[in-house]
Design brief:
Layout: H1 6-45, H2 49-62, H3 67-80, H4 83-95, H5 100-113, H6 121-127, H7 134-150, H8 154-167, H9 173-184, H10 188-201, H11 206-218, H12 222-235, H13 240-252, H14 256-267, H15 273-289, H16 293-306, H17 311-323, H18 327-356, H19 361-373, H20 377-390, H21 395-407, H22 411-426, E1 449-451, E2 460-462
Antiparallel strand pairs: 1-2
Helix pairs in contact: 1-2, 2-3, 3-4, 3-5, 4-5, 5-7, 7-8, 8-9, 9-10, 9-11, 10-11, 11-12, 11-13, 12-13, 13-14, 13-15, 14-15, 15-16, 15-17, 16-17, 17-18, 18-19, 19-20, 20-21, 21-22
């Protein structure tokens, strides 16, 4: 046998390396994509939506025509409330061959999250007969809760969350939402109780740790809040909010120098407008406590400029101005703070009335007007649109939307709503019942439907009857 020459041996070795590279690189890339998709699905199941999006970036880059990648992106954006992006990715998922029934479910859940909660009824009725996987049941619970909250039907949202917890007692997400609802109502004891339940199951859950710290701080318990904020700074991918809370605790505990140093360091970084306002507010209070009135006024004025709707900021600025002998400016800020309090009180009374009459479009327009006057136009528009969901020809809602779209230079939308308002004005105005058509009988209206465990009962069940309308 002829001996292989050194040159031929080297050539074969190079060829083998090239072959291995050509086969190993695609295999490695495929394994990396599969790992990213698996991790993204896990994070979706945990409700970690922002992290799920970051893990889907690489698969999208490598496989831009992957039906699965676009479906997962559509699911994630839908749960984040970014419905336009969700619909674009879901359309691509369908185009590239993803299962049509799963895409259709996501589209229905978008409608439910937007407040069209009745859109879930056919799905719930069908699922009452046929078993539904647990992950689908969770998505329906989540969308229903968000839809009821979008309509400010708090009692209905609580019914869904309560039933979800009865089914999955260790679930984090429904308890987190219940805590947030209690926070809206300034019921810090109940909010703290929910956070404790979450932390007993998942001790390092960052939203629960941050929420618990905030609830304790709201109860003026900075000593108890301090370790929760410290733990958040260790665990959170972005510890800024926890560090601001830590600084608030330090100030209340009389450790002003530490608080000031921490806030000054944060201001050198990247903060949201809300966080900047909080940081300057805290620095203003520190300066006010040290009788450094010029610095206090400077920081508090900056805070008010960044967040003009915050009453506490104006109150503090008025106090600093008064102490500096600037009584006229102080009086102006006190008047503005009082107007904001009256607006908040009006909104609170409207929300209480809506809890009693959730299907009254006039009350929803009243809430929209109050929010528009208070400087929250996007929230106001949502309330006007909710009024139109109840009564598509509600004249006042169309007129309000027409004015809004004219003000932001969107003449086509303004003209469309103006035309609807004119047509509604030409029709006789009938008084609207608090309940929609089909709910006018003597018996109580139906309660929301919800999901249950696949193993022991049909996964979508009607909830226990509750007193009062949905």
């Amino acid at each position: 046998m002829r001996r292989m020459t050194p040159a031929r041996r080297i050539l074969l070795l190079v060829a083998a390396c090239v072959f291995l590279a050509c086969t190993a690189v695609p295999a490695w890339r495929g394994a990396k994509i599969a790992y990213h998709l698996h991790t993204a699905r896990y994070l979706l199941g945990q409700g970690e939506l922002a992290q799920a999006l970051s893990w889907l970036a690489y698969p999208l880059q490598e496989q831009p025509r992957s039906a699965e990648v676009h479906y997962l992106l559509g699911n994630t954006y839908r749960r984040q409330g970014n419905f336009d992006r969700a619909l674009r990715h879901l359309a691509k998922a369908r185009q590239y061959g993803w299962r049509r029934e799963e895409v259709d479910l996501q589209v229905v859940l978008i409608d439910v999250q937007r407040g069209d909660v009745e859109a879930a009824d056919p799905l719930l009725d069908r699922a009452a007969v046929h078993a539904v996987p647990d992950d689908v049941a969770v998505e329906v619970y989540e969308a229903l809760a968000k839809g009821y909250l979008a309509l400010h039907r708090i009692e209905d949202a609580m019914v869904v969350l309560d039933t979800w917890i009865q089914w999955q007692p260790r679930a984090v997400q429904p308890r987190l939402w219940r805590a947030r609802i209690h926070e809206r109502e300034n019921d810090w004891d109940r909010a703290a109780a929910e956070y404790r339940q979450i932390l007993s199951v998942k001790p390092d859950d960052v939203p629960a740790l941050l929420g618990m710290a905030g609830a304790l701080l709201a109860r003026n318990e900075p000593v108890q809040a301090l370790p929760y904020f410290r733990r958040c700074t260790e665990l959170a991918p972005d510890p800024t909010q926890a560090q601001l809370g830590l600084a608030q605790c330090l100030r209340r505990l009389g450790r002003g120098a530490e608080a000031g140093q921490l806030i000054a360091r944060l201001l050198r970084g990247s903060l949201t407008l809300e966080q900047q306002a909080t940081a300057h507010y805290e620095l203003g209070l520190l300066a006010l406590a040290d009788h450094r009135l010029h610095a206090a006024i400077r920081h508090l004025q900056t805070a008010v400029d960044l967040a003009p709707q915050h009453i506490a900021l104006r109150d503090a600025l008025a106090e600093a101005l008064e102490k500096a002998g600037k009584s006229r400016q102080a009086a102006s800020h006190r008047q503005q703070a009082e107007r904001l309090r009256q607006q908040e009180d009006r909104i609170s009374r409207l929300l209480a009335a809506l809890a009693e009459s959730p299907h009254n479009p006039d009350l929803r327009c009243d809430a929209g007007d109050a929010l528009m006057q208070g400087g929250y136009p996007r929230e106001a528009v949502r309330w006007y649109m909710n009024a139109l969901k109840i009564d598509p020809e509600h004249r006042r809602a169309h007129e309000s939307l027409a004015r809004y779209y004219e003000a932001i230079d969107m003449p086509d939308l303004a003209a469309e709503h103006r035309q609807h308002a004119t047509q509604a004005g030409a029709q006789p105005q009938l008084s609207k019942p608090d309940q929609p058509d089909g709910l006018r009988g003597d018996g109580p209206p139906p309660t929301p439907k919800a999901c249950g465990p696949v193993q022991d009962q049909p996964p979508l069940q009607k909830l226990e009857q509750r007193a009062g309308p949905p």
